Amino acid sequence: MSGRRKSSIKNTKSQHGASMKLIAVLVIAVCSVLGFRTWRVNQETKQYAEVRDVLIEEIKEEEARTGELEERAEYLSSDKYIEDVAREKLGLIYEDEIIFRKSGR
Length: 105
Description:
Layout: H1 3-76, H2 79-90
């Protein structure tokens, strides 16, 4: 082989080695960026899941409260409520009722 051809092959090998190093660095950089983004997305997903769980719990509490308020509204519009208020606040009784009271002595 001639000297020229040997140096040409040597240059090609050194260029090939430099290209491979550059490609390796680029692959590592891309993998690092993708890994970081994946980690960040997982962290956000966990945060959103925690918020979702809190909101679901609040919805359950509000639904229970709504049920209690509906029951209360139904009671307030009933004859039973009117009777209870008449007895407690006004001291009214039915005509045929007998009231027993403790003596004050």
